[in-house]
Amino acid sequence: MKQTLMTLLAGALLTLGCTGPKNVLPQDAVDGLTLKDYDPVSVFKMEEHHPAAARFSAIDLHSHAYRRDEAGIREWVKILEENNIEKVIVHTGAYGEEFDRLYDLFTGISDKFELWCGFDMTKWDQPEFPACAVAELERCHAKGAGGVGELIDKGMGERVSCKVREPGLHFNDSKFDALFEKCAELGMPVSIHSGDPIWMYEPMDGHNDGLMNAKEWQIDLSTPGILDLDEVVNAFVECVERHPNTTFIACHLININHDYARLGDILDSHPNLWIDISARHQETCVTPRATKRFYEQYQDRILFGTDNDPVPEMYRDQWRILETEDEHFYLKEQSYHWPMQGIGLSDPVLRKIYHDNAIRLLSSRKR
Ligand SMILES: [Zn+2]
């Protein structure tokens, strides 16, 4: 009896296959689909929320000189006003004439912009390095630089201003001591990008959870002299520890949002350290509940930043992710294959992250 039923079922399935029901793809279409071509559309019928502006006046602690002509900067100011952003810190990473030119350009158009400079690393491998770089830092500060940023070490040493292709200096190198101490003396906070999201350091294979973004930013750990993610984070933390009077901002949650326990420990033991959440929503909102818990717990140490091309859509994505509890949505420009989730922060936490923490940090400077 059982066998007869199975035979009948098999016959029925075979018949269906011949007529080709609409919702069954030919097998080779699925087999041939690559992850890069996978472009799913959410089917969930749920209420969507698209805040048009930040719920509370916001300060963007992490942007760059994305516009370099008067018309472009004026347009940017308009977009900032529409989005309820009162101030933008422009990390130029520049020094010398380039810093002066950007400073005059931006501040001549709007007082919404504050310009931060870089370190002059041109003589980084020569004995006169610390003294020359400190002198240039003092000059930039006198010109109007409110802080230093963005300095970057993804494992090969600081690469922004020295443009070297061989391993450079890590931030725990004693050659940086005089510069970081000068920052403390001048009251200049320092924004440092250490590492990159963990997927960039993992093998680029079918087990890499964040492969579709990681392949764009992959870090080759076979490069001689390179530090891995743990080592580069440790080098940064050692630097923060060595300069307790200097205020540090770790960009992008020190790129360790996959390990909130470790990030929390680092914040707990270093009161001179803040973190910014710029350009990491795609990494953080994949775990919306853990992220919300972390943001609530460290609500006094987290700073808002964007770090991306300042187009209206980019700002709207910020408000949707941070303010709403929308689930399983895809952004127009997104680099991972997973869907986004709103974190849905409460009003008191939002107010601190958008605004109050930045005011506390910026107003603590001696000018
Ligand atoms: Zn940046």
Commentary on this structure:
Helix 4 (96-109) runs parallel beside helix 5 (129-143) and helix 5 (129-143) packs parallel to helix 6. This protein has helices spanning 2-19, 27-31, 70-82, 96-109, 129-143, 177-186, 211-217, 229-242, 260-269, 281-284, 288-297, 312-323, 347-363, and strands at residues 58-63, 85-91, 113-116, 148-153, 190-194, 248-250, 273-276, 302-303. The chain is 41% helix and 10% strand. Helix 6 links the parallel strand 4 and strand 5 (190-194). It has 367 residues and is an alpha/beta fold. The strands form 2 sheets. A 5-stranded parallel β-sheet has the order 4-5-6-7-8. Bound molecules: zinc ion. Residues 62, 64, 91, 150, 307 line the site of zinc ion.
